[in-house]
């Protein structure tokens, strides 16, 4: 798997992926909850929406708003198994490994931290 910074750089070249940013509401949410809680939310959300081998609504399971993790998922192409296959070469049809889930959460959290550092 690519290093996180290399992956985020590759994703930044995509006009679609680069169009996602945390708005004031999500930034405030991250500040109020703290990064530890947001990371916990990321694991909880992804274990249900991304980790299973079969996802009945794959490609539509991640909302485009409502939680910083959802926005980060779209920005980092970790929103569905199709995107995981395309961008990360993680095959569909099998459960994500612990290492894969940890890597995905690390990418999401790195993106969120960078967003929080950038003034918009």
In terms of topology, how is this protein built?
Elements: H1 4-12, H2 24-33, H3 35-49, H4 68-75, H5 81-88, H6 98-117
Please explain how this structure is put together:
By secondary structure, the protein is mostly helical. It has one domain (4-117). It has six helices and no strands. It has helices at 4-12, 24-33, 35-49, 68-75, 81-88, 98-117. The longest helix has 20 residues, at 98-117. The mean pLDDT is 93.
Please report the distance between the alpha carbons of the first and last residues: 31 Å
Q: What is the structural class?
A: mainly alpha
Shape: globular
Low-confidence stretches: none
Order of helices and strands: HHHHHH
The helix content, as a percent range, equals 55-70%
Overall pLDDT, averaged? Answer: 93
Total domain modules:
1
- What is the CA-based Rg, rounded? 13 Å
Question: What is the tally of beta strands?
Answer: 0
Strand percentage: under 5%
Largest sheet descriptor = none
Number of helices: 6
Can you give me a brief rundown of this structure?
By secondary structure, the protein is mostly helical. The protein is 58% helix and 0% strand.
